[in-house]
Write a structure and sequence with these properties.
Elements: E1 3-7, E2 14-17, E3 20-23, E4 33-36, E5 40-43, E6 52-56, E7 60-63, E8 68-74, H1 76-96, H2 104-114, E9 119-126, E10 132-137, E11 141-145, E12 149-155, H3 158-173, H4 184-202, E13 221-226, E14 229-232, E15 236-242, E16 248-259, E17 268-274, E18 290-291, H5 292-299
Antiparallel strand pairs: 1-2, 1-12, 2-13, 3-6, 4-5, 7-8, 8-9, 9-10, 11-12, 13-14, 15-16, 16-17, 17-18
Helix pairs in contact: 1-2
Length: about 300
Amino acid sequence: MTAIAILNAFADPHLLADTLISRAEADDRADQTVWLPSLGTIQTALAENNRHIRRLGRKSITLPHGGGMLAYAGEVPRAREFWAEFSERIENLNAYDETRRIGRAMLEAILQSMNVPQLSILGVLNDYNGQQDIFEYGGAVTAETQNYGRCLFAGSGAEFLLDLVLTADAFWSGVNHRPLGQTITEELAESISSRSLFLESAFPPNSQNSPLAHSFGGFVEWYKIERDGVKPHRERVEIHLTSGQRSRIGRVYLVGMVRNQNAPTLGSDIVVASLTPAVADIKVHQVDGLNLWLINQLKGEGQ
């Protein structure tokens, strides 16, 4: 399962997608552990009966020629079937028109021919006239907000993300200032990504306050969809503080993106690294970086 969203769909669209790949059965592998940026190495079993974390992987795809971006929610095997068919259509299209952008008609034709009701897809499609088309398939939760316009959510974590958005909307409706150096929607997208990491580390995996209890998480990637293409998030350092008589730093993350020449359709690699600062009361579970493209290559899609 998963959680995907489009924030401020018709004014400042940002697409979010988590990276947790899970399967609806008990884990039959010899090594039943998985590494997460928030918790380090943990057991793969989820609170939901007979469900386990399979690995981390991306659920978004950058459309060629600045055409926008898609993300899926649902079971991986059906998503793999869609991506395979979709990729073949793109290759055939590029064979005679290397600049053609993907439109709604092609996506709808593929999905109708496959009949995949258990798959949800959200996306932003750009055309050559500077217009953007919000694509939705398989059902989505929608919300009209004061500060973020219309937002769409899909997947097992849809309601969880919706609650985060409504909480932020209420906050910004009660203050006069606005974020500096970024739009309010970009601030929200970055905040959801950061807060998801925090909630995973602050609560047990079976707590309803943790994304893992809703079968999503790992890392939430986000992108601003410009009319000429996808804008990746900026590099940042996240510091998670616990307040009290003595403030403590619980986690420090370096989050960045690097260009991947071997996977142009995936845009850029996501790199998430836990840092070990020279500060007391720190426990760091893992210092290795998370490179989702390498993970996909080594473990294989759908495994």
